[in-house]
Amino acid sequence: MIRQFNLKSGEIIPINDLVHYRQLISSKGIAVIRGLYFAAPDGIYIAKNRGKRAGKVFGEIGGVFAILFLLIAVAFGFFTIGVYWISDVPLYAKIFGSVIGIAISAAAIYGIIKIAKKMIKIAREPDIIEGELVAPWSMIKNIVVTDVTTENTNPTLAGAINPRLMDVGMFRVLLFNGGEIDIWPVFDPYNKLNYIKNKFNLAFY
């Protein structure tokens, strides 16, 4: 069963990670290449529309860079006007240069307005995640935390100097039919498991 959830509603809890760009450098590799799971009122789901959400994030980033580029174009347009008017050129050349500068600035400002409106529209849209139910709570016998290690979750040069340490482990979901689902990496796994139990009123063994 596939359902849609609004990430901003607080009705679901990301288990290993729903943020596609977070990476964890460790012996197990990078989190982004693994399945992304979340807990919902009726069970555990696996995310299905990661590509769409990644496209939305990259679109927002691209919009920011586009606006910065257009702001430079606006400044260049006004700079062009100033250069022509302080230069020792005929009046018609100054007018021609001013028209070019105004056209550049006006086009850039129009582009900024269009992009800004689109970004505002995207920001106001609900952040939807699609998920496929992999195990309803009625099928889950227990969730065991295993393979807990302390990892540096800031895999950058700054993180090497000032590491951000956090317990990282794996959820082993035990099913009544004998099956198992391994979910990794789970950040701060013990607290996350307690939070899931309390939020959805679960009573595992």
Description:
The chain is α+β, with helices and mostly antiparallel strands and 205 residues long. The protein has 4 helices and 8 strands. It has helices at 50-86, 91-124, 157-161, 189-199, and strands at 2-6, 13-14, 37-40, 43-47, 128-136, 140-152, 165-175, 180-187. It has a 5-stranded antiparallel β-sheet, with no helix packed on it. A 3-stranded antiparallel β-sheet has the order 6-7-8, with helices on one face. A hairpin with a 2-residue loop joins β3 (37-40) and β4 (43-47). α1 runs antiparallel to α2. The longest helix is centred in the first third of the chain and has 37 residues, at 50-86. It starts with a strand and ends in a 6-residue tail after the last helix. It comes from Acidianus manzaensis. The chain crosses the membrane at residues 57-85, 91-113.
Low-pLDDT windows of residues: 18-33
In one word, what is the shape? Answer: elongated
User: What portion of residues belong to β-strands?
Assistant: 25-35%
Helix content: 40-55%
Q: Average pLDDT across residues?
A: 81
> From N to C, what is the helix and strand string?
EEEEHHEEHEEH
Main sheet properties:
5 strands, antiparallel
How are strands sequenced across the largest beta sheet?
A: 1-5-4-3-2
Count of DSSP-assigned helices: 4
C-alpha Rg (nearest Å):
26 Å
What's the β-strand tally? Answer: 8
Organism: Acidianus manzaensis
Keywords: Membrane, Transmembrane, Transmembrane helix
Protein name: Conjugative plasmid protein (PARN3)
Transmembrane segments: 57-85, 91-113
